Each structure stands twice: as structure tokens, then as C-alpha cells.
Amino acid sequence: MPKLKLVIGNKNYSSWSMRPWVLLRGAGIPFEEVQLWFDDGGRIPEARRYSPAGQVPVLLVDDMPVWDSLAICETAAELFPEKQLWPADPGARQVARSICAEMHAGFHALRGAMPMNIRASLPGKGMSAGVQGDIDRISASWQSCRERFGGQGGMLFGRFTVADAYYAPVVMRFVTHAVALPPAAQAYADAVCALAAVQEWVRAARRETAFVAADETYASAKAES
Ligand SMILES: N[C@@H](CCC(=O)N[C@@H](CS)C(=O)NCC(=O)O)C(=O)O
Q1: 80: Cβ–Cβ under 8 A, 6 or more apart, which residues?
Q2: How many CA atoms lie within 13 A of 16 on its CB side?
Q3: What is d(CA 197, CA 16) in angstroms, rounded to the nearest whole number?
Q4: CA 127 → CA 3, 8, 48, 135, distances in Å?
Q5: pLDDT along the chain (225 residues), means of 10
Q6: For ligand 1, which residues put their CB under 6 angstroms from it?
Q7: I need a labelling partner for 31 at 20 to 30 A (CA). Which of 64, 85, 101, 140 fits?
Q8: Collapsing DSSP states into helix, strand and coil, what is residue 8?
Q9: pTM of the predicted protein model
């Protein structure tokens, strides 16, 4: 089995880091964690020691870096086929890949106005027509996946897959900003919050005290607790 080391940023803020961490932990794949900290400008200069891209997350597979959260999730799925990190059914897998790519490359209004900040409570902050459009699209996508592929399981494709890890940080944004969701989307968001791996990440995020001004769109000076 390859030796895995996952390099991540602040658990309170780093939405990209949360995806592969929740994926590996949620699937029961052992890995060593290396945590780096954002500076005030939201940069992690030390990340260059691990990745040519100079960003987190980075997965070191026997010391060989894989950077970018999507590449890391694909690599994990390839290394551990028995974990079925993508849905087994080809049609479901196509949709799962599509909604992950959609998250990876899109939803800019939501990401800009509602950055992940797990320990903060910012009800209503950041809402706009563009943000609501992203929320509506995400809610519809969750509902459609649950109806078509969810079966008896609580996740988008029944069992826990990359898609759930990919949308876990979105659920965190919705919680922080108290976003009102249609019942089916809310039920899915609640199921994500109940995942042991998500709860473990959230507990650690809440213990962090580092205040990164660049990621605190709605705060002025001090960390919220
Ligand atoms: N597309 C990349 C984005 C990674 C990314 O933006 N990482 C941020 C933290 S969430 C980062 O490392 N920022 C520090 C920097 O750019 O110096 C991925 O999916 O991993």
C-alpha cells in the first residue's frame, strides 16, 4: 500500500483541503496529515516545499506530489478501487464526475460571497441574485442525484463517494450563512453534517484560533469563536 501524506491548510477556511481530507477519512484510507497555515493575505508560502503549484491541498504518494483537489480525489479512487470512491454504475459515475467538475470550476458567485468559515455564524450575509442562482442550481443537482441514484442511502449516489466529499464544504457555507434550502436539499445537507469525517473536521476547525484577514469578508478585527 502506498504511503500517503495529505498537506492541508487551515481547517476553518480551506474548502479545497476539506474535500480530499473528508474523502480519505470518510473512506477509511489511512494517511498522515501535514497542516500548514495561511498568512494574513491568505497565502501559504510553505506549500512550495510540497507542490510546484504552491497551494494546498497536496497529496504525497510515496513522496510524489499530486496537487489540486480533483486530481487528488481521482488518484485516491485509482489507488483504492475496492473503496468505490466513484459510483460503480457508469451512468451514475458520469453524473458524479460532472457535478464535481461543475463545483470545481464554477459557482463563483457563491464562492466569492460566502467563503468557507466554519466557526463563523453569518446568517443572510452575502446573499444576492447571483448567489441565489448558484444555490438553486446546487439544490436542484442534489435533489436530482438523490432521486435518480440515492436509493436507500443518504448520500448523493447512495453510498459515500467523491461527490459527497466535494460538496461537503458547500454544506459548510450553507450552515455558516444559514441558507434556506428546499426540504430534499436540506435533508442531504443534514446527512453530510452527520458524517463522522465531517464532524471530525468541523471540531478541529472550531478549535482553530488563527484569524486570516483575507478570508474574513464580514469581520473587522478579531476571530469569532
Ligand atoms: N484548484 C485547486 C485550488 C487550491 C487552492 O486555491 N488552495 C488555496 C487554499 S484553499 C491555497 O493554497 N491558497 C494559498 C496560496 O495560494 O498561496 C484545488 O482544487 O486544489
Answers
A1: 27, 29
A2: 17
A3: 15
A4: 43, 28, 35, 10
A5: 96 98 98 97 95 97 97 98 98 98 97 97 97 98 98 96 98 98 98 98 97 89 45
A6: 9, 14-17, 43-44, 47, 54-57, 68-70
A7: 101
A8: strand
A9: 0.96
